[in-house]
Design goal:
single chain, alpha/beta, 7-stranded mixed beta sheet, 4-stranded antiparallel beta sheet, 15 strands, 13% strand
Length: 463
């Protein structure tokens, strides 16, 4: 694999990433692994040993990971058998307790309590209550996270709210900086927010933000992890630089919440948003979350002042008066069925240390890159007979890596066909144009045997 030598560095060489625990990663490589030569059989044996030693391995049993795929193995849910699911960065797997919870909500709360569900089943408080479950996963203290609406809607609230605060302090702050490689919707929303607030939008690379933020900057909207390449951006450093410039930060945590420690409070982030259907496993279209730093909450002027965020919703007052705290981020009636599924899904995190999840994520992605280097070697090293080669776009350094690996195909137009062939053989990832294969590693349920089989299958379909 071109570039695999630099991409597949060991855990020891690159050190821990942001927020990683100082202790060794869960499921460390066996003591004699460094003396081994990476061969297909050695990697399979190492995967078995790592899975056996992994303290997070029991969490896999909390998810529905069926073995009904086209390449199903003998073990229904055993690591490396059945369907290998590496698309949790798009949609997380189903926690096993969710169907029962939804059945109770539908049959008892909706079916029997009916309107009384708002009070007797706690429906009304769900946005804040579920926010408190998410808060420790993103390093937020109590009263700063509320759940509801989509990521896009929350980005709009956060960006407009940030600009209004900044411009109240200095009318000359008329520019919004956005990540030049951001997920398209964030850019669309930023431009709409700019039109609403009389600002302009300028796209810059995240690494350039500290130098580009200045007296005219009102807000900076950035993705924590690049959705295409898996690159992790420097949230602490960029946030500090933006604060020093007098502007406010809005971080999109869609590809980091649930995959690595974020520490919003510790790093002084102003606003953050994130979806819950990826690494938080909340289900398709599950409601997003909004974080508003406590000190900013009294000045947060939401552009969507719905009745749910009124200080006295049932007064039906024609004049809007914002509620205190995170409730200011609410808009309309919460989606109770989706909320219930998310709340139950979040119980899989009970007793789980996000730092241990981060450590396993780094170990898994390191191991996957080593396996790819063995199973998908350079075309030249393969005697010139390989139909497709790949190289990693994901940074080798742990401090710059999220929880996915992005491989660029050569030729690029082969990527979709390669992914289709992988899925047909029971290895599920996805691709992004032009030519990028994405493999998301969710440490709560991804095993080292899954990583090894995915790379081995990739080698088979690219020949």
């Amino acid at each position: 694999m071109r570039g695999a030598g630099s991409a597949a560095v060991s855990e020891a060489e690159s050190g821990p990433g942001p927020g990683a625990a100082p202790a060794p990663a869960p499921a460390p490589a066996p003591a004699d692994a460094s003396a081994r030569r990476d061969t297909p059989e050695a990697l399979r044996q190492e995967a078995r040993e790592r899975d056996a030693a992994d303290p997070l391995a029991p969490l896999r049993a909390r998810f529905l990971l069926d073995g009904a795929g086209p390449a199903a193995g003998s073990g229904r849910d055993g690591p490396g058998t059945g369907t290998v699911y590496l698309d949790g960065n798009s949609l997380g797997a189903l926690p096993l307790s969710v169907p029962g919870r939804l059945a109770r909500v539908v049959e008892h709360e909706w079916g029997r309590l009916r309107i009384r569900g708002w009070t007797e089943a706690g429906w009304w408080e769900a946005p804040e209550r579920i926010g408190e479950r998410i808060a420790p996963l993103v390093g937020a203290g109590r009263g700063q996270v509320v759940v509801g609406d989509s990521t896009s809607v929350n980005v709009f609230k956060a960006v407009v709210g940030a600009v209004r605060i900044a411009r109240a302090e200095s009318a000359g702050r008329t520019e919004i900086l956005v990540d030049a490689a951001t997920f398209p919707t964030d850019g669309y929303i930023a431009r709409s927010a700019a039109r609403l607030t009389g600002c302009t939008v300028r796209a810059v690379a995240p690494a350039e933000v500290p130098a580009e933020a200045g007296p005219s900057t009102a807000a900076v909207l950035l993705g924590h992890v690049d959705y295409r390449t898996g690159e992790l951006h420097d949230l602490p450093g960029i946030t500090a630089a933006v604060r020093a410039a007098g502007a406010l930060t809005v971080w999109d945590l869609c590809h980091s919440a649930g995959a690595l420690p974020v520490e919003l409070d510790a790093h002084g982030v102003d606003f953050a948003v994130g979806c819950t259907y990826k690494f938080l496993n909340g289900g398709p279209g599950s409601p997003a979350f909004l974080y508003v730093r406590r000190a900013l909450q009294p000045r947060f002027d939401s552009p969507l002042p719905g009745w749910n965020s009124h200080t006295d919703p049932f007064a039906m007052d024609p004049e809007y008066e914002a509620a205190d705290g995170a409730a200011r981020g609410r808009v309309g009636t919460p989606d109770i069925l989706a909320m219930a599924a998310l709340e139950e899904a979040l119980t899989v995190w009970d007793g789980v240390d996000p730092a241990a999840v981060r450590a396993k994520s780094l170990a898994l992605t390191d191991f996957f890159l080593r396996c790819v280097a063995v199973h998908v070697p350079d075309g030249e090293a393969d005697g010139g007979g390989r139909r497709v080669t790949v190289r990693s776009l994901t940074p080798a350094e742990h401090a710059r890596r999220g929880s996915q690996i992005a491989l660029l195909c050569a030729p690029q137009e082969a990527a979709e066909e390669v992914m289709e062939a992988l899925i047909a053989r029971g290895v599920v990832g996805d691709f992004r144009r032009p030519g990028v294969l994405r493999f998301g590693f969710t440490p709560l349920y991804t095993a080292f045997a899954d990583a090894e089989r995915a790379a081995r299958t990739l080698g088979e379909v690219t020949r």
